[in-house]
User: Which sequence fits this backbone?
C-alpha cells in the first residue's frame, strides 16, 4: 500500500462515516473521531525496501494510563486476549511512549470501503467492550485476586 492509497482509505472512511479527515500528517499519523465517540488512530508505515508495500496501521484506543501500568496489569490484558476475548479483528497493543492500550490491525493492501467500514466498526465495538468490561475484570483479578 502506498501512502496515497492509505490517505485515500482514511479520507473515504471518514467521509462515509459522516466526518472528515485531512489525512496523514508529515509524520504519517492522523486520527478520526467517529460518531460513536470512539477514536481511531492511523499510521502509515513506510516500507524498509522501497519496492515493498507499506502498511496502514489502525488503532482503537482502549485506555490511556496516567502513569506506568502497575505490575501484572498488562499481563492480565494479554491473558484476556489469549483466552479469546474478542478483539474486533485486531490485536492488543501497549504503546509505552503514550502509556496507551489499543486494539490494532494493519492493512498491507488498500481495503474496499465497505469492508473497511465494517472492520473499523468491529474494532471500535471491541475497544468499547475492553474499556467498559475487560478493564474492570482485569484490574479486579490483578489487584483483588480471589474476590
Assistant:
Amino acid at each position: 500500500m502506498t501512502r496515497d492509497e492509505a490517505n485515500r482509505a482514511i479520507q473515504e472512511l471518514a467521509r462515509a462515516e459522516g466526518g472528515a479527515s485531512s489525512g496523514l500528517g508529515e509524520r504519517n499519523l492522523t486520527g478520526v473521531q467517529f460518531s460513536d465517540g470512539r477514536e481511531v488512530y492511523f499510521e502509515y508505515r513506510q516500507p524498509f525496501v522501497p519496492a515493498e508495500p507499506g502498511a496502514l496501521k489502525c488503532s482503537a484506543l482502549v485506555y490511556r494510563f496516567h502513569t506506568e501500568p502497575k505490575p501484572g496489569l498488562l499481563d492480565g490484558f494479554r491473558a484476556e486476549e489469549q483466552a479469546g476475548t474478542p478483539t474486533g479483528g485486531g490485536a492488543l497493543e501497549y504503546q509505552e511512549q503514550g502509556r496507551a492500550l489499543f486494539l490494532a490491525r494493519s492493512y498491507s493492501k488498500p481495503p474496499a470501503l465497505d469492508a473497511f467500514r465494517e472492520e473499523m466498526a468491529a474494532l471500535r465495538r471491541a475497544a468499547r467492550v475492553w474499556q467498559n468490561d475487560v478493564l474492570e475484570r482485569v484490574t479486579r483479578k490483578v489487584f483483588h485476586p480471589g474476590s
